[in-house]
Amino acid sequence: MLIVITELWVKVGIANLMKSDEQLEHIKKSLGRPTHEGQNYLIYSGDCIALMSRMTDSMVDLTVTSPPYNIGKEYEKLLSLDEYLDWCEQWIREIHRITVPNGTFWLNLGYVSIPQRAKAIPLPYLLWDRSPFFMLQEVVWHYGAGVAAKRFYSPRNEKFIWYVKNSDDYVFNLDDVRDPNVKYPNQKKNGKLKCNTIGKNPMDVWQFPKVTSGQNRSSKERTSHPAQFPVAVIDRIIKASSNAGDLVLDPFLGSGTTIEVALANGRLAVGFELKEEYVEMAVRRIESAIKRQAQERAQRTLFTG
Ligand SMILES: C[S@@+](CC[C@H](N)C(=O)[O-])C[C@H]1O[C@@H](n2cnc3c(N)ncnc32)[C@H](O)[C@@H]1O
After folding, report:
1. pLDDT tens, 125-137?
2. CA distance to 99, 257, 258, per residue, from 16 (Å)
3. CB distance 227 to ligand 1 below 6 Å
4. Ligand 1 mean position, distance from CA 60 (Å)
5. Is residue 7 situated within a structural domain?
6. How far is Cα 160 from Cα 54, in angstroms, rounded to an integer?
7. pTM for this one?
8. Atom of ligand 1 nearest to the CA of 211
9. How far apart, in whole angstroms, are the C-alpha atoms of residue 132 and residue 130?
10. Is the CB of residue 241 below 6 angstroms from any atom belonging to ligand 1?
């Protein structure tokens, strides 16, 4: 009997046996008091490997993150390439362990240079197989603006790697992210519409502007964090790769984009961030997004009754 219950526990995942508040309470029991706790989310200031290592197996439905790329940004300590890849392997293994059996991991990576070998090698080439996850797909995020170049093509993309724990069982809510911009929506074959009426599959090359800074070209969503995710990219990932009430994690939270978007979509969220100033920035941003969304809901009910 005990074996059957244990097997069921592992199969279904602890997360699915608990519901919302209980999931966050369970995390608080493992990690202690969060640096900040808001409605349906927790933020811990600290090293993500240390924090994840204290979490129970199979807790998180979806992880979306972008780590430091080891390129000398203000929030990272430069390592040798081997040390950096070993470090990445450590936190990727922790993410795998705390992910539910049908869970998902979306990893955004840029480029590094390797002296005498490569000017800008895509980090996914070096990291894709340092993970116990099943690699399902690479998505190219193409953005309009970036650095200019004269002796090579102007770089205009970064990659997202889509990993799943089980290639036969994962969440993919395609209808929630279909692209309504269809060229010939009324095209028919044998009297039937050829296109899905909701829209087309958004494909594996995504066009979304980068979060830009600068006097006249600063994005509306811009914070002072130097490497912010665009809300639109994370919105597509969270809608397609998780369900309402699921727990979403970002272990390199930065300015808090993942939590803001997770909450807007009715998910629970947890974030880890080493720098306290970024935690404060994320909290301010998330709380003002919650207020804005509440006001928008109130406006809508005002006019719809
Ligand atoms: C590329 S940025 C993430 C930005 C984020 N995607 C956003 O939308 O703002 C990486 C973040 O990881 C944080 N960081 C670096 N090492 C960390 C660690 N060991 N544990 C937790 N956070 C860390 C950095 O301070 C930085 O804010």
Report:
1. 999 889 999 999 9
2. 12, 25, 21
3. yes
4. 19
5. no
6. 27
7. 0.91
8. 8
9. 7
10. no
Number of H helices, E strands in the chain: 9, 13
Structure tokens at 9: 């526990």
Dihedral sign computed on CA atoms, order 221, 224, 229, 234: negative
Give the mutation target among 65, 74, 75 for probing the ligand 1 site: most ligand atoms within 8 A of CB: 75
CA 186–ligand 1 middle distance (angstroms): 45
With respect to residue 197, please indicate whether it lies within any of the assigned structural domains.
no
Q: Give me the domain span that covers residue 236.
A: 19-135+144-171+206-304
Q: Kindly state if the Cβ of 255 falls inside 6 Å of ligand 1.
A: yes
- Ligand 1 atom closest to Cα of residue 253: 5
Band (253; pLDDT cuts 50, 70, 90): very high
* Ligand 1 pocket, residue 66 CB under 6 Å: yes
Q: What domain count does the chain have?
A: 1
Residue 285 within any structural domain of the chain: yes
Distance CA 129, CA 136 (A): 12
- Atom of ligand 1 at shortest distance to CA of 225? 9
Q: Round to whole Å and give the CA distance between 223 and 193.
A: 44
